[in-house]
Amino acid sequence: GIYLDEGTSQVVVSNNVVYNTGWASFFQHYGANNTIINNVFARASLNPPPQPGDDNPDGDIHIGLAESHTSLTFTRNIIY
């Protein structure tokens, strides 16, 4: 998948097809001002490892805990 690690900021992730990953198709771990646009995230594993604060894991998208230094724009993406 696509993994924006701790503190990754000012990144544009666009026009990707992410398919059949072992866990999250997209994962943001903190970071600020990232833009995720026009992507397809499909068929990730439905058995992700447990994550704090994620009461409904679906395996496709994981956004780290929201804090004052965490932000992203997530538009026109398909999650299947």
Automatic annotation (TrEMBL):
SUPFAM superfamilies: Pectin lyase-like (SSF51126). InterPro entries: Para_beta_helix_rpt-2 (IPR022441), Pectin_lyas_fold (IPR012334), Pectin_lyase_fold/virulence (IPR011050). It comes from the Eukaryota. This is Right handed beta helix domain-containing protein.
